[in-house]
Design goal:
Structural class: alpha+beta
Largest sheet: 4 strands, antiparallel
Strand content: 25-35%
Oligomer: single chain
Number of domains: 4
Helix content: 10-25%
Length: 605
């Protein structure tokens, strides 16, 4: 019996290796081009006027976008209400909807410290992680060898730890291989029936290159046969249970589990059974994750009873077993920091990332803003922007700028994405007394008295005469000339207004369209002077600009100006363009910023 098992086990290993090598497309320049053409015909990648640019690197935002397209979720992502999960992907970022949507779907976790890693290049391990998650597999960097798992699934034949960089063309091969693999837990494919038919038709016609290296057949050597004992897998049993934040439970087993269902589990909390509709199962080899919804598990102990659960080899079954796990307390949601930015704006930072209740359904959450004790009206007196754990308030009119204190009160928000509500409302109070208006006393000015001017004519002796000079007798009485008029005193000119009427504004972000460049600013623009644009070859581009004010994803106004190249080109790749501005005036025309320049990077999708 042991001999038979050994032979069968060896044959299984040989057959599995042959299958992967036969179906997995290896990396080569020609294969990258063919894979890119197939993905482009399926509308998964777009390319540019320069082509698919297989040799260029791929950054994290671009990888997320093509991953979502591959899964057929782009329309859902575009309709998603972004909320700024990561601090380096704000609401003004071109990919914020895709990144926030991917985070909610469990496709990405970022790089830690509430950062996504925007603009950072993708390596092979990251691309393999995205493909495994697309196939509903786990991709735990701490407990799994990601590249080994990707090779086993047929995603790639790349060796090593996957820390080398990856180009767009190499990513195309990873994606093309993945589309041919059934998703984990079922026989379904990523593509729908029509797209799958088109994909396989294109795949069968493409002349992909095979691996260059061939292994010669070794010479036959007569060696004695050695039969090794096969270690049978242990009986299935749970070995650990772990909770994650507020609503996830992971149960680990001593061996791989086969196709678990809700019929195998029963959960109770405080003697109350959790209905099947309020949790989902995510199998992952030797562990199972459970995600609960609409359950108050904060600080409570959950009991999981398992019955009829089978091992992957089908040789052992859990008849009846129970595990317990505790959901620990969390940091309450409250303000931990506040900062006065200038005389018209401030920000507050909460202890943890938050979002509106029920994912993105607004209603139960709210806020209030006060200036010097007076309740302000949103959109009229101030604008509020929010992303992750940061709230920012900008007062719109000088008449409501605080001169003593500003207050922000919030309530009803919950943690992101683990649905713990605020225990109670919290308030942030900031001191604005440094901007208090002070009356400047005018100096006392004494009005000068007009001087009296008197002219005494000289005495003329009428008896003594000069020859040939006529003598005119002067009047005997002194004559007083008219008084000099009193000068007009303009005291109003001595008084100067101490109110701050305008602040410099700066460019905070940009976004490229197919034929325009949009520059976003932190305030309303009056005019732009000295605007010049040169392309990547330092060639002058004739342009004009147009001011705009649009609503952002969270409903707050966004100000800026649009740069429109003149000419017949309907599409431009603005990567490498440089914009020069001599003076950028704010709306009142009193203050400007400049000169400055901005070089466009990262427009490629």
């Amino acid at each position: 019996m042991k001999k038979r098992l050994s032979v069968i086990f060896g044959l299984c290993l040989i057959l599995s290796t042959v299958t992967i090598q036969a179906t997995t497309i290896p990396d080569s320049t020609k294969n990258q081009e063919l894979a890119g053409q197939i993905l482009q015909e399926l509308d998964i990648i777009k390319g540019t006027e320069q082509g698919l640019e297989e040799g260029k690197p791929l950054n994290r935002e671009q990888a997320i976008v093509i991953l979502i397209r591959m899964l057929g979720l782009e329309k859902e992502a575009q309709a998603f209400v972004a909320y700024g999960q990561f601090t380096d992907v704000p609401l003004t970022h071109w990919a914020v909807k895709y990144v926030d949507f991917a985070y909610q779907k469990g496709l990405t976790n970022g790089i830690g410290n509430n950062l996504f890693g925007a603009g950072q290049p993708v390596n092979r391990k990251i691309m393999a992680t995205y493909m495994l998650r697309a196939l509903a597999h786990t991709a735990d960097w701490e407990r799994e060898d990601i590249m080994a798992k990707a090779r086993m699934q047929g995603i790639t034949v790349d060796a090593g730890d996957g820390l080398e960089g990856i180009t767009r063309g190499q990513a195309f091969i990873y994606m093309t291989n993945t589309l041919e693999i059934p998703q984990n837990g079922n026989t379904g494919m990523i593509l729908g029936n029509e797209d799958l038919k088109r994909y396989r038709d294109k795949l069968s016609k493409a002349q992909f290159e095979k691996p260059n290296s061939t292994i010669p057949n070794p010479p036959k050597v007569d060696t004695p046969k050695v039969f090794k004992a096969v270690q049978l897998p242990p009986s299935l049993k749970p070995i650990a249970a772990k909770t994650y934040l507020y609503d996830e439970l992971e149960v680990q087993f001593n061996t791989m589990v086969a196709s678990p269902s809700k019929n195998n589990f029963e959960f109770t909390v405080d003697g109350r059974r959790i209905e099947d509709a309020y949790y989902n199962i995510s199998p992952g080899g030797a562990s199972i994750r459970f995600k609960f919804s609409n359950q108050n598990l904060h600080g409570k102990t959950i009991i999981c009873r398992m019955t009829g659960l089978k091992a992957f080899d089908g040789k052992s079954v859990i008849s009846d077993s129970t595990v317990k796990a505790e959901f620990k307390d969390f940091t309450p949601i409250k303000f931990v920091q506040g900062e006065v930015l200038n005389n018209k704006s401030f920000k507050g930072i909460l202890s943890i990332n938050v979002m509106p209740p029920d994912g993105h359904k607004k209603g139960a959450e709210g806020h209030e803003v006060y200036s010097d004790g007076k309740l302000m009206q949103e959109k009229v007196d101030y604008d509020l922007s929010w992303g992750g754990k940061e709230f920012k308030v900008v007062f719109k009119n000088p008449e409501v700028y605080p001169t003593k204190e500003a207050r922000l009160k919030v309530w009803g928000y919950m943690t992101s994405p683990y649905h713990k509500f605020m225990d109670e409302a919290d308030e942030l109070v900031l001191d604005f007394s440094a901007f208090e208006k002070k009356e400047i006393p005018l100096p006392e000015v004494e009005e000068p008295k007009p001087a009296e001017i008197v002219v005494d004519p000289p005495k003329i002796d009428v008896i003594e005469m000069w020859k040939d000079v006529p003598v005119v007798e002067q009047p005997k009485d002194k004559k007083t000339l008219p008084a000099t008029p009193e000068p007009e005193q303009k005291y109003a000119e001595a008084k100067q207004d101490t109110d701050i009427k305008a602040q410099p504004i700066v460019v905070t972000d940009y976004r490229c369209g197919s034929s325009t460049i949009d520059l976003y600013t932190d305030g309303k623009i009056g005019s732009v002077e000295g605007l010049r644009v040169v392309d990547a070859n330092q060639k002058e581009v004739k342009v004009r600009y147009q001011l705009f004010e649009v609503l952002g994803y969270d409903g707050t106004p966004c100000d800026g100006f649009e740069i429109i190249p003149e000419g017949e080109d309907s599409y431009r790749n603005f990567a490498g363009y440089t914009i020069y501005v001599e003076k950028l005036y704010e709306s009142t025309g009193q203050v400007y910023t400049g000169p400055f320049s901005i070089t466009i990077t990262g427009c490629l999708m």
